[in-house]
Amino acid sequence: MKKNRRFIVAVTVLGVIAIALVLTNSKSTFKRELSDFAVDDTSNVTKIFMSDKNNNSLTLTRVQAGKWLVNNKYSGSKANIELLLGTMLGLQVKETVPKAALEYVIKDLATISVKVEIYQWKYKINLFDFIHLFPQEKLTKVYYVGGPIQSNRGSYMIMEHSSVPFVVYLPGLRGFVTPIYSPIEKYWRDYSIFKKSIQQIESVRMDFPSEPGSSFEIKNDANMNIRFISLADNQQVPMFDTLKVMNFLASFRNINFEALLNDMEMHRKDSILETTPYCTISLTDTSHTTQIIKTYRKGASPGEMDDFGKPAPYDMDRLYALVNDGKDFTSIQYFVFDKILHPKSFFQKKQELKKK
After folding, report:
1. Do 285 and 350 reside in the same domain of the chain?
2. What's the pLDDT tens digit per position in 163-177?
3. What are the residues whose beta carbons fall under 8 Å from the beta carbon of 98, sequence distance 6 or more?
4. Strands 226-230 and 318-323, sheet pairing
5. Is residue 201 located within the same domain as residue 286?
6. Within 13 A of 133's CA, how many CA atoms are on the CB side?
7. Whole-model pTM?
8. Starting at the edge strand that comes first in sequence, how are the strands of the sheet with 235-236 ordered?
9. What does the pLDDT look like over 37-49, one tens digit per residue?
């Protein structure tokens, strides 16, 4: 009898402890869910959706490791998306919003915030974080990102279906995270124009309409047999600087535009595109896909001088460019493009030039 009584008492005590632990964990879990903005593992994030009150929306979709699509149309900027994922991973709650500011903050979040939805791969069965079965894409977090606090060292954020906003910050960031959560498409796009190695290039054609004698084409066959062709007479140039040609081809590994200008006033954009292109660049890769971009001179700013102290005939730092099959109007920098905007004479041997 005594043994049975002790057993019953022990079971009862353990039961009470278990119930207390469950209740305690339930309460703490509830509180944690209200402020659990950080993503525990960004490697399994599959999709991020963001939208604001101005009808801007954005979907970032992971298509493979390190590669994302923006609105299922454009390659994503690796640097910007890594910044966003790093922010989501490191978010920390600084404090709850003081009662005096609560009404203002909730109103602010309701009118100017950005809604964020995060999707991750999760397993229906996850035993001891060891046995994983039945993976599925799941919406794991939905929260709203508002404006900065007065000191600019944190942002107001609130979980969906919650009435408790928090001040959230990113340790190490001297500022606030609000700008990182932008639903504007152009900020997330990869600004690459050409990303080809020499081995991937079949040919490059450079047309200078105002100076036909400067136009040329370089053909590169599978055995790295380089042919240099003058487009003025469609004749092969027998003598050219091989090192310069190789450096030229190697430069197409990383050529980017500076900014998207698709929102420029239509009449202004049309007037630029009606001018004669400065240079048209056509690159064909080994899969026989051709990329064509057209560059246009940009007018000089008032008072701008050239390298000789004379009034500049055009902007000395930037050009315009039509890229992505003519879909995007952009700004490009000479700093980036000077390594490929060479005339035919740049590659010719001195002996060859003397003959001309």
Report:
1. yes
2. 899 999 999 998 999
3. none
4. unpaired
5. yes
6. 4
7. 0.78
8. 235-236, 226-230, 216-220, 201-207, 279-285, 290-297, 318-323, 328-333, 259-260
9. 999 999 999 999 9
